[in-house]
C-alpha cells in the first residue's frame, strides 16, 4: 500500500484537468471520460506543505509580503542537495510561473520582432508565448532515434545563424521526458555562445528523475558563458502545486536580473501571493521523502503502461528519464490523429493529448499523464485497448 494509491477527487473543483474537457475536447458530456492530459497530478502534495499552508491561513496575515530569506535559502539548499549546484540567494528572482517568467524574460531581454529558437516537438506555450509577445518563433526539429530524440547540431547551428536572439531549452524535455546529457548541453552552450544567443533553460521537470537518471542544470556547465544563461525552475511540477503559482529564475548577470525585475514591476508582478513562498519552503525543506516515493510509484505506473500497450501492434513507447508523461508513438497504427482521438474519446472514454499540439513532428504521438493511482492507470490501459479493438 502506498500513499499514492489514494488520490484526490478533483471533479467539480474547478480543476483544469477534470472540469474543462467539454471545451478542450469539444464534447457535450464528459462525466465518464478519464482525463490523463494536462501535466498535474491527482495526488495530494506532501503533508508538510498542506500543514504549512494551513498554519499560514490560520495566522491570517495576508497583507503585502515579500519572499523571505528562509525560502531563498530553501532553494539554495535544494539546488545543492539535488544537483550539487551552488547558487547565491542574490541570483534568484521570483515569478508566478515558468510561463510568466518566460514572457517577462523575452520582454526584458529581447526586442520586438527578434527570433526565438525552439527544438520541436515542444511544449505548446513555447510557440504561443513568444508569438503573442511579438517575437518570431524559429523551429529546429529534434531527430527521432532509437525511441528517443537527439539534436541535429548542424541544423541547430544553421538555425542559430539566422540572427536568432534567444534559444529556449527544455530539460528534461517535454513531451519526451529526455534528460539531455552533458555533451549535448555543452554543445548547446558552445553554439549559442558562437552566435551570441541568450539561453533560457526551462528545467521545471528536473526533480522528476526516474530510475536513477541524473539531471544536470545547464548553467552548471556554462563556465565563462554563465551570464548568457537564465534558468527557470519551480517546485510546482515536482510537488503538485501548480495552482499555488510559484517559480523562480536564476541568473548571475546582474544587468539581466535588473531588466527582468523592471519588467516584473512594470506589469504589476513585483510580489508573490503570500502562500507561494510558504509552500515552496515547506516542499523543499520537508518534501524529499514524499518525492522519492512518488518517483518509484510513477516509474511503476510507466512500466505497466509500457508493458501492456506495446503488446498492441503499431504502438511504441520509450520510457522517459524524467517526467510523469508518456510519449506514445502511434504512427504505425495506420490511423490519422483525428480518427485516433475520436476512438479514444468516444469508444475508450479516455482523454489524452494529441501529439500535433507539440508541433508537426509530434503528429502520430499521444501524451499520457500517469501521475495517478495504479488503479486509474489500469483503467486507462483497458480503455486504450478498447478504443483500438
Ligand atoms: C516544460 C514546461 N514548462 C512550463 C510549464 C508551466 O509552468 P508554470 O505552471 O510554472 O507556468 C510546464 C507545464 O506543464 C511545462 O511542462
TrEMBL record:
Q: Which cofactor does the UniProt annotation name?
A: pyridoxal 5'-phosphate
InterPro entries in the cross-refs: Aminotransferase_I/II_large (IPR004839), C-S_lyase_PatB-like (IPR027619), Class-II_PLP-Dep_Aminotrans (IPR051798), PyrdxlP-dep_Trfase (IPR015424), PyrdxlP-dep_Trfase_major (IPR015421), PyrdxlP-dep_Trfase_small (IPR015422)
Catalytic EC class = lyase
State the CDD domains in the record: AAT_like
Q: Which UniProt keywords apply?
A: Lyase, Pyridoxal phosphate
Q: Which residues form the Aminotransferase class I/classII large domain?
A: 39-383
Source organism superkingdom: Bacteria
Coiled-coil spans in chain: none
Q: What is its EC number?
A: 4.4.1.13
Molecular functions (GO terms): cysteine-S-conjugate beta-lyase activity; pyridoxal phosphate binding
Q: Which family does it belong to?
A: Belongs to the class-II pyridoxal-phosphate-dependent aminotransferase family. MalY/PatB cystathionine beta-lyase subfamily.
What's the name of the protein? cysteine-S-conjugate beta-lyase
Q: Origin organism of this chain? A: Lysinibacillus sphaericus
By which gene is this protein encoded?
Answer: patB
